[in-house]
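Curious: why these numbers?
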Amino acid sequence: MDVLVFGAGSLGSLVGGLLAQRHDVTLVGRDPHVGAVRESGLRVDGAVTARTSPTAATAVPDRDGTDRFDLAVVTVKAYDTAAAADALAGRAAALSGPDDSDAGRTDAVLSLQNGLGNEETLAAALSCPVLAGTCTYGARLAEPGRVECTGVGEVALGPREGGDADGDSDADGEESALAERVGAAFRESGIETTVAADMPRRLWAKLAVNAGINAPTALARVENGALVDGPASGTARAAARETARVARAEGIDLSDDEAADAVASVAEATARNTSSMRQDIEADRRTEVDAINGAVAERGERARVATPVNDTLAALVRAWERERELRG
């Protein structure tokens, strides 16, 4: 496959680096990381290791307007999804600024992002199929040109609106067949991958885990393992239970206990990991709280489901973001 990875930060570089072992990969990211990959290749170490030489750029390459990418894997932060959609559609500059307006074309898109609504944003801007995905691999951009895999997980992907395993529930089975091809390409590259017909439920389950882990660890500045049985474990589980209640209000079969148990299980399995939101706060970057706890609170309000824990977590992180903006 000819694959474009849009958003070559930690996760995008890990996925792109592994895919590049068997496929033609172009990473779109920011300097100095892109420059280091272009000059010396990409090194993956940690729980998995690889040394590859993907193409690297700060904007989606035009490729003379002739060739199409078979697949674009979108790994940008949720607040950059609209910009990614515009860049992939050829309507806007990519990551490095308004002067880099060249854009490419793609036959299909896979979102491996946090939060809700990313797939809908991409689909609204693009004419190609958009698959939903989740990823539980841990990744950390250790330095320009080097990404560390902090834990082996799984990629799950499939039609964004779900469907039967035989593909009868989506248009002519095209998205199910596409998902199978993408899943095969990922597995060929050594990425643990499941092709799933229940992606809406999986996205909500992942949201429950993110709602329970990200904001508490970011605010308390603790590793994920502190939520297994520490003082904030009750808060983490309560945020996940609220997410499950909102999910059920939207027709998704996700129980309170399942959501809470998933938080405990992931926190234990990734005990030494630093959550993505904590990494953002420690790096003085904007967080994805609006797409995680904020999304739970917003959808809960629409569905008349109380979400006091997510409301509070979102408000506290937003307070930090406001002070960051004032400092800047």
Observations:
- The chain has twelve helices and twelve strands.
